[in-house]
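Continuing the series of single-chain predictions for the mutant panel. This is the parent chain; the variants come on the following pages.
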Amino acid sequence: MNDRDPNVDEHVAVYLRFRDVFGDATKRSYMARKRNKKEPGTSVPFAPGRDPHGLGDVMDSLTSNMGWKSPLARSELILAWTTIVGAETAEHSEPVGIEEGVLTIRCDSTAWATQLRLMRGHITTTIAQQHPEAGVETVRFEGPNAPSWKRGPRSIPGRGPRDTYG
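Parent structure:
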């Protein structure tokens, strides 16, 4: 009986075709055993390359193989914000996140945001030296979140309030 025989039903032809392609269970297990069989003498207990590795080396290779280097470096940068800018400046600013090479910093007031904008070159250089894997190209400083007075039933056109928050 052949799957190409015109007198064979379709379901029987499909079964025969699958059996030819994939083989039955006994052949497959035999082939799997044959494929997994190692060469005699390849498993030597004290062969080169079987030495235990240090935990730091294993974690380093794991992070590089899984592609975690950049996210871990970004997290280290956010955690080390106090050492990068100093304790007093870190009290009035906090890193929000890093997206597409832009580090976003939220400041307590617009005055602190302005001062940090003036220090942008120094901060960017320090980040590039201490955390090069983070991939930070530029830093963006934001002031505090203030409500918008431009919408609503009682709004009028005009300049509106200026810097009343911070």
